[in-house]
Q: What sequence folds into this?
């Protein structure tokens, strides 16, 4: 329980700093909203076209805005040279990882909360017909992005070209996550929704997240030390 309390304190520290500065979340929300506006002009407002394209729109927005958050995940520690102090503090390094991942997941979810209603409004997309299933898959997607991304963001902390390398390394690993998220959303927004297929992909995403969480907890400390 102490591990989770310490992780919660680290997550709250990052979120509190972000709430004061609004540097990352404002950029993410602006970029996500801009993507929605572009989509609304670029795609025809035909019901069939919207139902087939809106799942990709949603997950592209989540992917791009999530990368913005992960690119800044450890920037404050790097700029102030406090990463070593954080690792030397009497807190398990796994708590550092979990706290960072939770904070990143919260930022990704904050953008999804804005982008999803905007897509429904601008494109008249039926995204809230199965709001519970959609919320679940978005939460699982945000957690997966945050868990995997936090590992590599910490690993590339001292690399000069980290902003370029992070998406190159990250996106191939996240392909199954985006496929599952897109397939789930597509199954829910069809004219005749396929909830069985949606739940298949939700279960897949849950297993994917659990597997990478275990792997990340295993390798995080060694990667950070290196």
A:
């Amino acid at each position: 329980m102490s591990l989770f309390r310490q992780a919660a304190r680290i997550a709250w520290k990052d979120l509190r700093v972000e709430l004061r500065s609004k540097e990352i979340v404002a950029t993410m929300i602006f970029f996500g909203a801009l993507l929605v506006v572009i989509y609304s002009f670029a795609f025809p407002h035909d019901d069939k076209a919207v139902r087939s394209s809106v799942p990709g729109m949603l997950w592209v927005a989540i992917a791009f805005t999530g990368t913005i958050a992960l690119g800044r995940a450890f920037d404050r520690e790097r700029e102030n040279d406090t990463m070593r102090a954080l690792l030397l503090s009497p807190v398990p390094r796994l708590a550092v990882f979990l706290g960072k991942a939770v904070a990143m997941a919260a930022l990704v979810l904050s953008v999804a909360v804005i982008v999803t209603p905007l897509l429904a409004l601008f494109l008249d997309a039926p995204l809230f017909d199965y709001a519970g299933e959609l919320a679940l898959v978005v939460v699982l997607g945000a957690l997966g992005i945050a868990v995997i991304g936090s590992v590599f963001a910490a690993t590339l902390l001292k690399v000069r070209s980290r902003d370029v390398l992070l998406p190159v390394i990250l996106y191939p690993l996240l392909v199954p996550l985006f496929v599952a998220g897109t397939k789930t959303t597509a199954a829910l927004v069809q004219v005749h929704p396929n909830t069985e297929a949606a739940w298949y992909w939700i279960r897949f995403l849950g297993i994917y997240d659990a597997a990478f969480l275990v792997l990340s907890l295993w390798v995080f400390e060694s990667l950070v030390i290196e």
User: Anything to note?
Assistant: The chain has a mean pLDDT of 85. DSSP finds nine helices and no strands in the chain. Residues 2-225 form one domain.
